[in-house]
Write a structure and sequence with these properties.
Blueprint: H1 30-43, H2 50-58, H3 62-67, H4 70-84, H5 92-97, H6 101-110, E1 115-116, E2 129-132, E3 151-162, H7 164-167, E4 174-183, H8 184-188, E5 196-202, E6 206-208
Helix pairs in contact: 1-4, 2-4
């Protein structure tokens, strides 16, 4: 069904005509390569985290977000961050923090671990029925719109990980993270394929439906 393949799982935005992964280039133009490198280089200054970066891209006008290409959205988010963090004027402090090639490799390969120590027991275990809350927020969330309000089943518990909704506001705290299984029919209607769809969701997104 076409709707099941619409942008973001939403109806009315048109089908996604994805390029075969084996044929798709990493970058479609040289400027995309430069945009990617610029975003990584400035991120290494340590003035924002990955969720702040995602939220900065989302805070465009909705029409602009949909009209822009992937890397155009990256550049729009970067513009927001540079302005808000007052980094447009180069200072000696910033220059001192720019990593050289070897340091950049270490940073990229080490990544940013999200696993944290548990401070509470998980509410759910594998097999529990849950409903994804309908989240009305002006902030950042990693709960896709197409799963909100839908019933699923806990497939796996991953432990406590950095909660992106708070992290986007500069508040680093952990919440339990789960893999939740949904039927394609539950997500997109009876005409959709009944394949199992797994979505990673944090505990605050979920309501307990287990008797």
């Amino acid at each position: 069904m076409k709707g099941a393949h619409d942008l973001g799982g939403r109806y009315g935005l048109g089908a996604i005509n994805a390029e075969p992964e084996a044929e798709e280039p990493v970058f479609h133009a040289e400027w995309e390569r430069r945009a990617f490198a610029l975003t990584l280089a400035l991120g290494m200054l340590g003035r924002w985290n990955i969720d702040e970066a995602r939220y900065a891209r989302e805070r465009q006008h909705p029409v602009s977000y949909l009209e822009n290409s992937y890397y155009e959205n990256w550049l729009a988010g970067l513009d927001n961050l540079l302005t808000e963090k007052e980094l447009l004027a180069i200072s000696s402090d910033l220059l001192d923090r720019i990593p050289d090639a070897e340091d950049a490799k270490k940073i990229l390969f080490s990544g940013g671990p999200t696993l944290m120590d548990d401070v509470a027991s998980p509410r759910f275990v594998a097999g529990d029925k849950v409903r994804v809350k309908k989240i009305q927020t002006l902030g950042h969330t990693r709960a896709p719109g197409y799963v909100q309000g839908v019933i699923g089943t806990i497939a796996e518990h991953y432990g406590t990980h950095v909660f992106p909704d708070a992290n986007a506001q500069g508040q680093r705290r952990g919440e339990h993270l789960y893999s939740v299984a949904f039927s394609g029919c539950e997500l997109w209607g009876e005409e959709a394929e009944a394949n199992e769809v797994l979505v990673d969701l944090w505990e605050p997104y979920l309501e307990d439906l287990t008797p």
